[in-house]
Amino acid sequence: MTPENVAEAKAKVPAITPEEASRLADVVFLDVREPSEVEASGKVAGALNIPRGMLDVQADPSSPRREAALDPTKTVVTYCGVGGRAALAAARLKELGFADVRHMGGFKDWAEKGLPVERG
Question: Which residues does the UniProt record annotate as the domain Rhodanese (predicted)?
Answer without folding.
Answer: 23-119
